[in-house]
Amino acid sequence: DADVTQTPRNRITKTGKRIMLECSQTKGHDRMYWYRQDPGLGLRLIYYSFDVKDINKGEISDGYSVSRQAQAKFSLSLESAIPNQTALYFCATSDFRGYEQYFGPGTRLTVT
Amino acid sequence: AQSVTQPDIHITVSEGASLELRCNYSYGATPYLFWYVQSPGQGLQLLLKYFSGDTLVQGIKGFEAEFKRSQSSFNLRKPSVHWSDAAEYFCAVGASNTGKLIFGQGTTLQVKP
User: Fold this and answer.
1) Chain A 92-111, CB below 8 Å of chain B: which residues?
2) pLDDT tens-digit map of B7-56
3) Is A78:A14 a contact under the CB 8 Å cutoff?
4) Which stretches of A26-80 are assigned E, i.e. beta strand?
5) Distance CA B48, CA B31 (A)
């Protein structure tokens, strides 16, 4: 089984809808991250969490929120989806040093 | 502020030819450097990393990278490319004291038969 899983893998939603992307990990890591990938822009950090009670904004957090339900679970929500949030979203985990990160397979989100 | 630049957006090489993907970083101290590969429809997989010590690091799948402090570079190399190496490659630097990674824009590698 994969160490980092993301659900759903693909999602099409309409403008204005609320949507949640979920991430689970079995690596026992404390740190978890949400990135979005856009062509030509690489990966940009949305939110990150160093433990269940420590959640921080990344460089592009506007329009997103997160919830760290447990050490193993970190969810990303789009409160009111808009078309420019169409992207590939990745969850990642790391140990306490935070540098060597392990990525999930990604969720392709399309907002129409 | 830390930053990573991958000057080549797209590279095409013939199968069996050598490969070098460029990465330049901006960072005030000794950086932690990484190369990740993303195959079509897949997540990112770590190819190799540099934390300290020997400046030539070996990774998986026959890749290596060399840290050159004087040039602020961490270029990825492979002596003989295979068709299965076609993918997108990302260079990243570890931001000091934050545990965050800063990624370059990515380089897409196409392999010709």
Assistant:
1) 92, 94, 97-106
2) 999 999 999 999 999 999 998 777 899 999 999 888 899 999 998 888 99
3) no
4) 31-38, 42-51, 54-57, 64-70, 73-78
5) 14
